[in-house]
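for the record, two folds in this file. i put them one after another cuz i was lazy. first one right below, seq on top, structure tokens after. the second one comes after a little note so u can tell where it starts
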Amino acid sequence: MTTHDSGSAPKPPAKDPFDLPDVSGLTVGVIGGTGPQGRGLAYRLARAGQKVVIGSRAADRAEAAAAELGHGVEGAENAACARRSDIVIVAVPWEGHAKTLESLREELAGKIVVDCVNPLGFDKKGAYALTPEEGSAAEQAAALLPDSRVTAAFHHLSAVLLQDESIEEIDTDVLVLGEARADTDTVQALANRIPGMRGIFAGRLRNAHQVESLVANLISVNRRYKAHAGLRITDV
């Protein structure tokens, strides 16, 4: 009996989507770390044992905020914060997003950049989503930082809950978007460092607009129900 070798090697087993890298040794920079969202993320990550550097346009302001946060958080001017960090979260106001990233292009080259900026407008009817020319804040970041590994995450978190020292766990999932699995896995693992949080892959950067826009809906939920709502993905 003659057998024929098809010449094709067996396929390797699929990677476990929850087999994530160890990120405990990474230094996390937070550009916009003196604002509510950035300050809250810095506090939660540092409280979980992550080394954190917060950035501001003024070094003395960043250092003062870091001293208030404690847990080993350090403060620096934005460029120094970016240089000293392995992974950098961008948590600046939408109005200053492009200008801030343009000024840090060299310092952010080669690094994972996590954009959590939500382009929103406000009027008497409440919050509403804006559509950047590039499609989303994350896609704008990718266009402005061609040498960086841009991802998007941490959009739907309440700054109030993040900064509340009496709260032990933040009950929410974190939607993570990006182009390279290694990068999104790293950001998911970073989200998992915060008790109660879980990082969930949610697509490529082209899908970031609806993730950023959903914050307008959450603001409406929070106002109606006097809450600090988050998101949970079921059946995962």
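(here's the note) second protein begins now
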Amino acid sequence: MQIKELADRAGVTVKAVRYYESRGLITPDRAGNGYRDYDDNDVQVVREIRALLSLGLTAAETVPFVDCLRAGNDRADVCPASLEAYRSRIAEIDRRISELTGLRDELTELLHDAESYRSEETP
């Protein structure tokens, strides 16, 4: 299938498919006329990439999942490297949550202090 059909079947834009290809996530065959030629496996790979990106993973972080599918697995997340990518992403989210919680606590303290000061100054 050509790039437009792949994009339509996977629910992405042609530009997205070209981006995935530029990142080495998909590697189409070339037809005799030079056109990219994709197969049904590419549809599954592109859908998986799109789903992972929507979860906040980067294109580079999707590589273990793509490799897992390319290895013939029905699911992209059953390989050890995929599981480690999940763990790594979760750890990053936990770190960000902790950082944001600290910022919220600091801002809350400043707000309470400012409100308290203002009420003391108001007759």
